[in-house]
Amino acid sequence: MVWQRNDDDVRCFVVAASTPDFTTNDVARNLSPHASVTSELVLDEVRLPAAAVLPGVVGMRGPLSCLNEARYGIVWGAMGAARSCFQAALEYAKTREQFGKPIGSFQITQQKLANMLVELGKGQLLALHLGRMKDAGTLRPEQVSVGKLNNVREALAIAREARTILGANGITLEYPVLRHMNNLESVLTYEGTSEIHTLVIGEALTGLRAFE
Questions:
Q1: Which residue, 133, 145, 9, 126, is CA-closest to 67?
Q2: pLDDT single digits (tens) 68-85
Q3: 91 catalytic, yes or no?
Q4: Omega before 33 cis (within 30°)?
Q5: Which of 161, 185, 191, 212 is labelled catalytic?
Q6: Residue 205: exposure state from Cβ atoms within 10 A (0-12, 13-18, ≥19)
Q7: Is 71 or 60 the better-scoring residue by pLDDT?
């Protein structure tokens, strides 16, 4: 799916992998994310038939609607990663012993777990609220930006806090925490950086556009 600005508007082209003069170069040595292959797309004088144009999609509404759906998915996905990190840290805190007792019995560890749970719950409730608005057809793009900005930010904070509870074990693949943390670093900037979502929310609040 290639979005291109033409002389008069923006259109989407479906480019098959077998198209002549179209090649991909895999991006190697990336630490995040690991769920899919990241590639550079190279189109060198590629010619496409008229049938390659995605019908019924004209202008920026097309790519922005795709972005909005992806951002909504992130609102939930980030909380899934956060929950996994929290659960790993909680179980570890109850079973890892230091000074003859579980580290979960220490006040600072309990404070970390309590703070993580509060932010996890708030993020899940926000995602649920946005989902209900989406079902009702009232969800606006700037509200999705609120969810993406908050939930990714808090998921990263939960992952980092969980890693401190696990100590050195937190950097191994025996536990899911660092894997989620690495992937969340990519989530922080794809489908719109935190800065972009901040400006989307700011424009909704003030009516003043700060993008340019």
A1: 145
A2: 889 999 999 999 999 999
A3: no
A4: yes
A5: 191
A6: exposed
A7: 71
